[in-house]
Amino acid sequence: MFTHAANITRYKFKGIGTLGAVTTVIVLCAILPLLYVIGYGLTLSSEQWLTLWSARIPGLLWNTLILALLVAIFCLIMGISTAWLVARKEFVGRKLAIWLLLLPLTIPTYVFAHIYTSLMESDGWLGSIWHAVFGPDILPPDISSVFGVAFILALAGFSYIFLLVRASLSHSTKDLEEAARIQGAKPRSVFFLINLPLMRPAIAAGLAVIVLHVLSDFGAVSMLRYQTFTLSIYNQMSGRMDYSAAAGLSFVLILLSLSFLVLERFFRNRQRYYSGAQAKIAKLQPASSKQQFLIWSWIGLISLFSFLLPLGWMIHWSWDAWKMDLIDSEFWGYCINSGIVAFTSATLALIIAFPIAFFQTRNHSALSQTYLHLSSVGFALPGPVIALGVLTLVLAQLPFIYGTIAALFIAMVIRFLPLAVQAQEASLQQLTPSIEEAGRVFGAGPLENFRRVILPIISSGMASAWVLVFIDALKELPATLILRPTGFDTLPIRIWIEASEEMLELAAPAALMLVIGTLPAIWIMRKSEKLEK
Q1: CATH number of the domain residue 181 falls in
Q2: For the whole model, what pTM was predicted?
C-alpha cells in the first residue's frame, strides 16, 4: 500500500502527465495577445523606445505605481478589518453587513467615477453638503487627483479582499487559537502570530486581483483623465492610430504586472498552510453593545460610500427615466445581451482555469509557476489590446468567427482567466494532499476521486471563482466595444455612451440593472460558502 502511494506521489509531482499537457495548451492560447504585443513592440526602433522613455514612460510608471500602492493599502485596511469582524463577531445585522460588503463588486469602476464626479459637483449631493459645512468658497476635494482615483478604485475593489479573507477565516482551525490563548497569548498576538499567517494565501490572492485590476483599469482612469498606462495605450490606438507605440507601452505594462506576480508568488510560497479535515470551525463571539456600535460605525461608513450612496443615485435617476418612458424593449435587450456574455464567459473561464490551478497546486515546480504567471497575462493587458490581439488571430486563423460573439467570448476568457485561477488555487491550497492520495489508495479512479473528494472541498472556492468572473464580465467595457457583433449592445456600452453625453437619466437605469443582474450570482456565492453562519 505504501509503495503504491509513493508511486502515485512521484507520478503526480514529478511527471507532467495529461494534466500538464492540457495546461500547456490552455496557457499557449492565453498568451496569444502577449505574442501580439511583443510582435508589434519589436517593430519599434531604438529611437522610438528612447522617445517613449523620455516623454511618457517615467511619468506613467510613477502614476500607475503610486495609484496601485494607494489602492492596495485602502483595500487591505477595509477588506481585512471587515472580514475579521463578520467572521469572528456575532452582532445585530451581521447578515445584512455581509451583503453590503459584497455588493460593491456589482458596480463598475466607470460607474463609480461617473457617480462621484456628479455627486462632488457644487450642486451635487456631496458637493452641497461640503459647501454647507465648509462654506461656498472652499471647493470640494478633486476626485480626479491620485487620491480621488485611488478612493474610487478602492471602493470598487476592497470586496475582493473581504470575500477571500472571509472564506479563509470561516474555514480556519480553532485549535491553534485555543492553544495560543492557553499559553497566555493576548488576542492581538493571536491575530498576528496565528490568524494572519493562515490568511496569507487569501490575502495574497485578493491583493493580486486588486493590483492587476488597477494596472489594467480603463473605465475609471479614462473618465477621470488620470494618466496611466491603460489610458495612454488607448489614446495611442484610438486617437493617434499608433499601434507600435501602444504595443511598446503595453510591453512595459506586462513587465510591470509580471514582476508584481513573481514577487507576490515568492512571498506566498515561502510557507504554505493546510487545515485538517477535522478542524474546529471558529465560533462567533457575541459583541457587546459598545462593540456593536463601533462595528456598525465602521461597516456603515464603508457601506455608505461603496454602495448606499451610488445605489441612491442610480435609483433617483432611474425613477426619472421611468417617469419619462425612457426604459423600453430596446433597454431590456441590452440586459439580455449582458447576461449571455457574462454567464457564458464565467462558465468557460471556470472550466479552463481549473487545470492551471490544479497543476500548480499538485505539481509545485518551476514549470507550474511559469504557467501560472503566463495565464495572468490577460489581466496585465488592457482590454483594447486583448481585443486587438484576438481580432488579429481571428482574421488570420479563424475568419469564420469574425464578427460573431465567439470572438468576444475568447477575449473575455483570456481577460478574466487570472480571476478564476487565483480563486480556485487559493481554495486548492487548503486541500491536504494526503486526503486526495488516500482516495487513490483505496481504489478511487481520477474522476471518482475528483467528484467525491476534491470537488466537495473546493466547491465554495469554485463558486467564488465563477461569481468573480461573472461580475467582471458583466461590467467589461473596452473589449466589448471592439469585438461585439454589429448591433449587439450591452449595458456597459450604453452606460459609457450615455455617461459621456451627460445623459444621467439614461445611464442610471443601465447601471442599476448591472447591480440587480449580479444579485443572483452573489446569492449563489453566499449559499455555497455558507456565509450566513
Answers
A1: 1.10.3720.10
A2: 0.76
